[in-house]
Amino acid sequence: MNDLLKRRLTIVLGLLLIVGGIGTCRKLASSRTSPQRTNAPAPARMVRTVVASNGPVPITIPITGRLRATDRMLITAEVSGTLLRTPKPFREGVVFERGEVLFRIDDAEVRAQVNAQQSAFVRTLVQLVPDMRIDLPAAAAKWEAYLRSVPVEGELPAMPQVGDEQERNYLAGRGVLDQYYGIRALYERAAKYVVSAPFRGVVVAAGVEPGTIVTPGTRLGEFIAPGMLELETAIAATELPLVHVGDTLRLVASDGGGPWTGRVIRLGESIDAATQTVKLFVRVEGNDLRDGRYLTGTIDVGAMENAVGVPRSALTEDGSLYAVRDSMLHKVRVSTLHQGATTAVVRGLVNGEEVVTDRLSGAYEGMRVAPIRE
Questions:
Q1: What's the total number of domains in the chain?
Q2: Buried residues in 57-85 as b, exposed as e (16+ CB within 10 A)
Q3: What is the 3 state secondary structure string of the chain?
Q4: Contact 297, 251 (CB under 8 A)
Q5: Residue pLDDT, tens place only, 173-189
């Protein structure tokens, strides 16, 4: 019995010790206080800045464009026929003097028509002169002499001057006027079978070969005068009031050639709806200039007084700028006088004010920054 009692007493005491230990642990855990956490300050953002200094800011408008010859002729056929070979071939780079034949189209058919029409005209005059000796004796000698000068093949001489209304009606009634002007119309058509150079120039495009059968509208080639060149470019519509005909500028090539002098000769009248730009044409003079060459330059249009030039990207959506004061951002209201491709001219900054030149995403007033002066 004593052993059984001792064993039970031992179990009870063990249970009491376990329950007491659990209670003590819970009490100690509930009495422990967590240390207070403190948030670390956000690191300052690095920004580039410039110090504002009001004064005259020169305004320049950058341009780029391609040279084109002002004297340019796109040659197309006006008649049908076979293209004949000429003494000087129409090839790219070949120079033609004024009046030299560029193209010749076989005109055998139209020449035959001219000869047939002139033969009929001679027959009409042969029948006209005897009757005119009776009806209009005063004009008969004049038309008899004209009859002798008209060839069947060859250039038709000019018709004698008609003296009065009676003579005009007499000739019209006999069909003389109709036939004469019909032959003249054939001469005009026959002249289109030969294309001559209207000025001294060079071939820049040749699309057909001798032996080709051409029809009206067929493109034969392109011919330019290389000495007169102009640059076609475009500027923003907002910059149009700053540019005037006669303004001069310096131009260079992308490969380092130049410089050349240019002068504004024309301004476009319409604004491109897609790009909101206006065409600008510049006359360019100098050596080593060729049709199709790309040039770049700037137009100096004066200066804005009492202003500051800043990068265009520094302007916020509402047209303000960020300045740095006590290592924090502050928004400054300014008035924008001009916006170029990369630079904006503003007014409203105080001399010595440190202005942010970076485009900041997520910026706000009071934001901590670390300025880096440019």
A1: 4
A2: bebbbebebebbbeeebebebbbebebee
A3: CHHHHHHHHHHHHHHHHHHHHHHHHHHHHHHCCCCCCCCCCCCCEEEEEEECCCEEEEEEEEEEEEEEECCEEEEECCCCEEEECCCCCCCCCCEECCCCEEEEECCHHHHHHHHHHHHHHHHHHHHHHHHHHHHCHHHHHHHHHHHHHCCCCCCCCCCCCCCCHHHHHHHHHCCHHHHHHHHHHHHHHHHCCEEECCCCEEEEEECCCCCCEECCCCEEEEEECCCCEEEEEEEEHHHHHHCCCCCEEEEEECCCCCCEEEEEEEEEEEECCCCCEEEEEEEEECCCCCCCCEEEEEEEEEEEEEEEEEEHHHCCCCCCEEEEECCEEEEECCEEEEECCCEEEEECCCCCCEEECCCCCCCCCCCEEEEEEC
A4: yes
A5: 888 889 899 989 999 89
What is the model's pTM? Answer: 0.59
Find the radius of gyration of the CA atoms of the chain: 47
Q: Which of 47, 51, 48 has its CA nearest to residue 349?
A: 51
Rounded distance, CA 168 to CA 179, Å? 14
For the cut 60, the answer to whether the pLDDT of residue 40 exceeds it is no
Alpha-carbon distances, residue 204 vs 74, 179, 199, 215, 221 (angstroms): 10, 42, 14, 22, 8
Q: What is the CATH number of the domain that holds 97?
A: 2.40.50.100
Q: Do both 102 and 198 map to the same domain?
A: yes
| pLDDT at 13 (0 to 100) | 65
Residues 6+ apart with CB under 8 A from 167: 136, 139
In a domain, 358, yes or no: yes
What is the average pLDDT across 8-36? Answer: 64
The CATH number that applies at residue 366 is 2.40.420.20
- Residue 15 has a pLDDT of 67
**Average pLDDT of every residue of the chain:** 83
168-185 per-residue burial string, b: 16 or more CB within 10 A, e: under 16: eebbeebebeebbeebee
The answer on 361 and 331 residing in a single domain is yes
C-alpha 117/C-alpha 122 separation (Å) is 9
Structural domain containing residue 279: 63-68+227-301
